[in-house]
Amino acid sequence: MMNVPLTVGSLLERAEKFFPKKQVVSRTLSGIHRFTYKEIGERTRRLASALEKLGVEKGDRVGTFAWNHHRHLEVYFAAPGMGAVLHTINIRLSPEHVSYIINHAEDKVLLVDEDLVPLIERSKDQFKTVEAYIIMTDKDELPETTLEPVYSYEELLREASPEFEFVKDIDENDPAGMCYTSATTGNPKGVVYSHRGIVLHSYAFGLADTAALSETDVVLPVVPMFHANAWGMPFAATWFGSTQVLPGPLFTPKLLADLIEQEKVTFTAGVPTIWLGLLNELEKGSYDTSSLRSIVCGGSAAPRGMIKAFETKYKIPFLHAYGMTETTPLATVSRLKSYQVGLDEDEILDIRSKQGLLVPGLEMKVVGGNGEVKWDGEEMGELLLRGPWIADEYYKDERSAEAFRDGWLYTGDVATVDEEGVIKLVDRTKDLIKSGGEWISSVDLENALMAHEAVFEASVVAVPHQQWQERPVACVVLKEQYRGKVDKQEILEFIAPQFAKWWLPDDVIFMEEIPKTSVGKFLKRALRDQLKDHLVQNS
Ligand code: ADP
Question: What keywords are annotated for this sequence in UniProt (predicted)?
């Protein structure tokens, strides 16, 4: 066979050639804009040529600090297309982490959204390698800024050549992108994506038994383009010529519901907190969501009750998937096997709320105290992964030695595997509740709590306990209409039939809101800090 390198530039070339009329719909601060792939291709080539003029060379890191919109998409292809490396920076990290990441990756150029300029300004004095800032704005004038030297994205494009040729003579193993995990402790860890990894991951995204992304789809990535490359959707959707709807800055559940209705979105993806918000919005207003063929949910466990509400009440098929920044990220997808379709509703929901089957192309092991666990849905162990789109180290980071061993990524996730080979995540190792030498899954308790009709969000954390070492405490946010009407006892009685007595939370604390991480997951560390003396005080 021919040894042809798999390159990110070739993904956009295909869209330019075969789908020049298809659209990218982009929401920015000034409203909705529409571009064809022909226009996106031309603008991307202009951007690559402008970056070259600014001194960006092969292997240099090009940082982005931006929402999901067409300009961000153009950088997704311009940087790897010229042999440089796209580095997407999480806009919600602390100023210290933002400076750490930019210095650690040694970004040469930073492309920044107009409304995010103040966030970059507050860290800029710490940056050691940035030689130029490019502001992404719809306006003719640049905002006032202390960043320098500073350029206008659109002006650079106007002055640049649309003839730029994406580099062909690169090694497919060369870096194309990088992204840092949002650290819960210590500094964020960098993951480098190769051209080959991104292209193979894009293939995987299109498989009928995974996400089945195709030209016919209208794709709305809610997951940010600064979080694991919006789960790889911008690459795959461009390659396949799907219509893309990029929701832009500061979106709300209402805006998402409106975009789904107006743009007839067929496929969307994000973390559970987004879908809990959308569900709440759908309950308030009347929206036509009939175009949706799939909501993909990952990043943390999709609550069973939420899956049920989407599927039965709104008839929206719900796809639960699992992955990590380190896995590009798609690793497992939960789908019924052909012979499971006739099972009863509860059994189907059980399968759907598990994390699912390994995506073709990857290998897995679940390893407990006695080696690989039995596939009995009971025995727990740490999930290990390997494959062509799984990272093999953290970028220049000694913590690699712990996570990458013997050719495997140690995910830090504890799972069971059932007879069908389906994995169910029990917890992250650090979130498991260790009570009297036994493990309690916070995820299972959360699932049960969120199935109560009054519960909007629930997070269960370990709280230190003198006798049992740790005990579970549930933090619950009630839906507005139920506040003050439902008490602790009712909640505990509701979940009691599903668990052994010692699994039940020692307390239920009602909150206004559960603190979230920079990518919208429950921030359990903050809850643990807040509650560490709770049981002592109440015992
Ligand atoms: P961060 O580490 O910044 O949260 P990642 O997106 O890389 O960012 O997080 C990956 C982790 O998210 C996984 O290791 C796992 O613990 C959790 N996760 C991802 N998908 C799921 C899922 N479907 N169910 C439960 N946990 C999930």
Answer: Fatty acid metabolism, Ligase, Lipid metabolism
